[in-house]
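In the current project phase, we have settled on a layout for protein records. One protein thus recorded is set out beneath this paragraph:
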Amino acid sequence: MESNESPTQPAKEVAVFEDGPSEPLFSLVAGEGDGFMLGAAAGDAAGGAWELGYSAVAEQITVLSYQLIQHRHLDTTRVIQALRELDGSEEGDPVYRAETPHFRAWLDRAAAGSPVPEEEPSLDGVARAIPIGVAFRRDPEAVTWEATELGRLFSRDAGSVAAGAVAAAAVAASCFGQSGRDLIVGVTETVAPVIKTLGDGLYGSQRLDTLEAELGRLFEAIGVGDGKEALAYAGGDAHDPIQVMLAGLLLAAPATDRYHTPIEQAAKIGGSTLGAAVGGIMGARVGIRAWPWAFANDTWFAEIGRRVTRGPDEVRDLPIPYAVEQHLISGSRPGFH
C-alpha cells in the first residue's frame, strides 16, 4: 500500500463559531492524525493501570503502529510474533506492564502454540484499533475491515469486535477534524454498512442488531462531559464493550480547548483501555500537543504518530520497542528518554 503522506503541511487546529464563542461547528485539520499515539499514551497513563506511566495498552498500540509503518497492513503472523516478543518470546524477560486479564490469557495461549481468541466480552480491542483509524483514514471500508480482522484475532465476541470498529472509525473521522454531530455521523456512516456481516461467525451477533440505533441516539447527548453521565446515555452497562465505547465517543465528540478533560472522564469509566481509545481520538484531532501529565518516551510517541500518518515507511532508525520497554522497566534512567 502506498504511503498516506499528505501533500500539504499540517494545518493548525482552529474552531469555527456560529453565534458565539461557545458553539464551535468544526475544527480544521491539525496534522491529519499524527497526535494519536501521544494521546493514546496519555490516556493510558491517565487510567492508572500502571502507576508509573503507560501500560501494556500503549505498548500494544506501539507494536501495531510499527507494523503499519513498515507494511501498511496488519499480517496476523507478524502481529502475533511482534506482540509475543515483548512477552519474552525471544529468550528475554517480559516487558508488558499491567496487562488486562484477557490480554494476559491470550499471550499465555499464544506461548503454548495457539493464540485462541477470547469468547467473553472485552473492551481491550478499542485501544488496539486506534492506529488502524489513522493508517486507513482515507478508506472507510479498509478502516472497518482491518479493525474487524484485528478484533477477530483476539476475540470471538461480536460486541467486542464491533466496539473496536467504532473506535477505529472515530479516530479516522477525528483525523479530519470532525467533532460534534459530524463525528457521530462519520462513525455511523462508516460502521453501519458492515453491521450485518461484522458479527458473522462470532458469539452474540444479535447484540449488533441495535448498534445503528444506538449510534443514532447519541445525537441528543452531544455535549455531555461527565463520564458516568455519558455511560448512562449509552445504556449504562459498564460490562458491555459497545456501550462503554459509545460513552467514550460521546465524551470525545465536543470540540474543546480543554482537550485532556474527555480523556480523564473516559479513564474514570473505562480505565486505561478507554482512556487510550479516547486519547487516540482526541490526539488525532488536536495534533501533537503537550499533555498536562508526564509520561515517558513522549518524543518517541510523537514520531510514531507522524510516521503512521505520513511516513516514511521505515522503522530501522527508530528505537526497538522491546529495548525501550526493557530500559523503562530497569529504571536506570528515570524520566523522559
Q: What stands out?
A: The CA atoms of residues 222 and 250 lie 6 Å apart. The longest strand covers residues 24-27. The chain has 16 helices and two strands. Strands lie at 15-17, 24-27.
